[in-house]
Write a structure and sequence with these properties.
2 domains, 11 helices
Amino acid sequence: MIPIRSSFLVACAVAFGPALAAQTSPLGPRSFAPEDYDGEVVVDVVRLADLGLLADLQRSPLAMLLGKFRDTFGFDLEEVERVRFAIRQGHGEGEERVRGQKMWVFEGGPEVALGKGQLAGEADSVGDVKLLHDEIGAVCSPRPGLVAFEPKQYGSESRMTGLVDGTKKSGVPCAALLEITTKPGVIVSIATVVPPGESLRMPGVGPDWTDAADRITAMALRLNAEPGAGGDALAITAVLRFDVGETGPALFQTRLKAALVEAAAEPKAKPIKGLIEAVTTAVAGRDLVVTLPLGAGRAASGKLAQAVIFLGALVLSPVEAVAEEVVIEAQPEPEPEPAPPPPPVRRR
């Protein structure tokens, strides 16, 4: 027999459970994503702050971008704990990239909310979720500490309202992206699927690629930190995933090693020669893994900016289509310029 107290609790749960659940939105960080998205950026802002990297960014030329961030959203990046950006990259004729669906999600403390910055307009409510449509996009806050932002895409319909009212479902990463997305513990991760047309335009590949069947299908860039005696040791890792893996990783590794030797011998590269010579490569199944150790402490912070530029020049061309979305702010549709006035009539 069920005790009276337990039966009373069960009855309360049945009677009042739906009402209590209705008071809190079920929407979470994973509720906002494009359909079958194939590009993703994830930033652990708390780890950046703990390692002193966020403070370094605030003292760097990138501080201007951080100021734009606050002007737009009304809260500082240091008030955010985690940033996720997902994009379904459009591909036009010839597989060149065009603008596709995208979604930002910010998680943090109670300061991460609507009502400030450029997105401080009059918000509607769908249930208990605040929803605002602005000239730069749609933004909603299911609860304090969670804000989702969909930049406006001219010529395409916003998915935000449908995600909030339940008429649309949040997307999931496509299979190729899911295979290469980062494991827990990575500080910064950028991952993207590489379409066939773009894989042949990558540095080190080109039209003379001998095995067109074993092309690069996806790639990722990660900033990792491993505990050590002198503090957390930072490293940048680039992972190139090949379609088959039989010949592609080894062939690309050979070309990359030759490019590194040539780069180290270049007089203009003398300031970063140490970084170039520290790069290691390894073939792991279908992957080519390129690693650049940065060390620990303040020295690691000084190397980080140089390292990003250096590795970017080597292997990150397709990632630019994803990474550029991190710093490009959605702009209002330009207004057409007024027609010039007619020339004055000359009187005789």
